[in-house]
Write a structure and sequence with these properties.
This protein has about 500 residues and is of the alpha/beta class. Helix content is about 60%, strand content about 5%. It contains 20 helices and 7 strands. The strands form 2 sheets. Strands 4-3-5-7-6 form a 5-stranded mixed sheet, covered by helices on one side. Helix 4 runs antiparallel to helix 5, helix 4 packs across helix 16 and helix 8 packs parallel to helix 11. It is globular, with a radius of gyration of 26 Å.
Length: about 500
């Protein structure tokens, strides 16, 4: 086969991988309910859009600078493409980051190992169940994975290149990654690359003024959102972004205050989070250790970097299962190294097992599409938050345009309703600790709102929303005397399995 034909086949194989990855990431993306931490990102992004204040993140009406601003900004920017805040705009940035992650793993595998390793590693990552699952969730975790891979890939494009421009791009990638979730964006790529830097004293080559200048540029870039928040944010905002960086990235590492898991957390969850391909990298590790002196140097560095990542996360007292996500691409790269090594040995013996590998990837793709793209969205459709929001908007718009309505979110039993976008004024949040009328009538509640907020509320243009547990009586049920009551309907999955999640109730004034 001629070289042009080989290149054409390589491009086709890559586009097939990227096309299948896009399909697995996007099929049914808008049909699934908000899940877990997505409610936080949705709530914060919604309040940014409603208030026009993009520098002060609020959750449930209170200051909440738990993460840097960039992941929220990506969500609000996505609303320009999707026409408003919804399930697609919430998850689009994570999906794009996951798609680029598959591509970057392909590039790393092709650069560091024998031909075909990147393609196999890309397929392994694209069909890793929990990678695709978290890629379809609106959080900052997959954004961090993509940033780490981008920095590592950029380094390996010219590991001995000491030009200022290369340093600037590398350091800016570190800063950008750190603006997603925290300072681990600087730490994780450094740990992966440390074995190569220490080898033969290579770090001395890069210890120069050009690197120092690039770090200053990246530091200024990293500080820009915090500076803008300080200059243009609300003067009475109750939290410091840099203070939260210190608390979340330093204090939590040495003195964890939440998310405390056992020390063996990642030894269990790394195999789980790399299914169905976990046996590949486990076998690869065993083979590499047995032939340590004879394997390729890049393979040894990959294992050492993966080990440093595992030690770093384990050393932190704050541990959760999905914190292991940045290790997943490098584990799959190790598994792909073993597969291509085994395939080369079989080819040397006149045997070829490529068809079985293709069949395995095809089966994993179909299974991922079926579970995450079809079954999971179907069980989460037909009711829940999506249908609840549509019903409230529809019923309210029968009386007046959405922009004329105001909405009050009432916290009951430490439960605040899921996000609901009406197109009207910013939500007003009533905390559980406040002395709002638990019983009485509409007039008493409206009088309390005016007294507490210091503003006028039109009883005919105010929607009251609260959340409650299945089986409990409706909170604020006295409003039903002169309000239309809209409650969350069960999703198809809840109907089938007879299990209900927390439900919301909206009280819409009757004409």
């Amino acid at each position: 086969m001629t070289a042009p034909n080989e290149r054409r086949d390589d491009r086709r194989a890559l586009w097939l991988l990227l096309g299948a990855s896009a399909l697995m990431l996007m099929l049914g993306l808008g049909g699934r309910e908000l899940w877990g931490a997505e409610t936080r990102w949705a709530n914060i992004a919604l309040q940014m859009l409603q208030s026009g204040d993009y520098f002060d993140p609020y959750l449930k009406g209170g200051a909440y600078y738990d993460k840097p601003l960039l992941s929220y900004w990506l969500i609000t920017a996505s609303t320009w493409l999707t026409g408003g805040l919804g399930h697609w705009s919430l998850r689009l940035s994570s999906v794009v980051a996951a798609w680029f992650s598959v591509w970057l793993v392909y590039l790393l595998g092709e650069r560091l190992f024998r031909k075909g390793t990147g393609l196999i590693a890309g397929w392994m990552l694209a069909t890793t169940f929990y990678f695709v699952f978290w890629a379809r969730v609106a959080t900052a975790d997959i954004l961090t994975v993509c940033g780490v891979l981008a920095a590592v890939w950029w380094y390996w494009r010219g590991p001995d290149d000491s030009r200022f421009s290369r340093y600037v791009v590398f350091c800016l990638l570190l800063a950008l990654t750190s603006l997603f979730k925290g300072l681990i964006g600087f730490i994780l790529p450094g740990l992966v690359l440390l074995p190569h830097l220490l080898e033969d004293g290579r770090w001395k080559r890069h210890l120069n003024l050009r690197l120092g200048a690039a770090l200053l540029v990246a530091g200024a870039f990293y500080m820009t959102p915090f500076l803008l928040s300080h200059l243009y944010g609300a003067p009475n905002y109750g939290e410091s972004g840099l203070g939260l960086v210190l608390r979340e990235n330093v204090v939590r590492f040495f003195q964890p205050f939440d998310n405390i898991g056992p020390i063996w957390t990642y030894l269990v969850y790394l195999p789980v989070y790399t299914l169905p391909w976990a046996p590949c990298w486990i076998i690869a590790l065993w083979v590499a250790v047995r032939h340590w002196r004879h394997i390729e140097p890049d393979t040894r560095r990959l294992i050492q970097g993966l080990g440093l990542l595992l030690l770093f996360f384990t050393a932190s007292g704050s541990r959760r299962s999905y914190y292991v996500l940045p290790l997943v691409p490098f584990a799959q790269l190790l598994g792909a190294w073993w597969i291509t090594r085994r395939m080369a040995a079989r080819e040397a013996q006149g045997r070829f097992g490529g068809n079985r590998l293709k069949a395995g990837f095809a089966a994993a793709t179909v299974l991922t599409l079926g579970v995450l793209g079809v079954l999971y969205p179907w069980t989460n459709s037909g009711g829940g938050v999506i249908r609840f929001g549509e019903t409230v908007r529809q019923q309210a718009s029968l009386q007046a345009p959405l922009k004329q309505w105001e909405m009050v979110m009432v916290e009951v039993d430490n439960k605040v309703p899921m996000y609901l976008q009406t197109g009207g004024a910013p939500f007003y949040y009533v905390q559980e600790t406040q002395d709002f009328p638990r019983a009485g009538d509409t007039a008493a509640l409206m009088a309390w709102l005016e007294r507490t907020s210091g503003r006028h509320w039109d009883p005919q243009r105010t929607i009251i929303v609260a959340q409650y547990r299945p089986g409990d009586p409706l909170p604020l049920d006295y409003l039903g005397a002169d309000h239309q009551v809209v409650t969350t309907t069960p999703t198809r999955g809840e109907q089938v399995f007879h299990v209900r999640q927390d439900q919301s109730v909206a009280y819409i004034p009757r004409t």
